[in-house]
TrEMBL record:
The keyword Transmembrane applies. Keywords: Membrane, Transmembrane, Transmembrane helix. Pfam families: SdpI. The chain crosses the membrane at residues 58-75, 80-99. This is SdpI family protein.
Amino acid sequence: MILFFTSLLSLLIIILISRSNIVEDRNIMIGYRSRQSLKSPKHWAAAQKYSNNLAKKIFSLLIILGIFFSVYELIKGMNLYSVTVQTILIILGCIWLIISTEKYLKSVK
């Protein structure tokens, strides 16, 4: 259930942030921040758009996987193996987001 609720909360936060204009200008609180994304306003805008769209896809996929894990846990009960796998999936999703966004930013000119 950890995967489902964590992914759902993350997706809701991403949707709320994407609907506001908070990340249009560089700021110290919200947005995808890295050396690449801070290179120029063009890089910043590209990073926000790309990472936002990719994060929505990743966390939607994790929600679906989280539903399967939730059903499994309701049937078998929560155990350390299930929690560990779900935590690893969340971490891998975040790593995928960072690596993909950085790779994309290298192609932005």
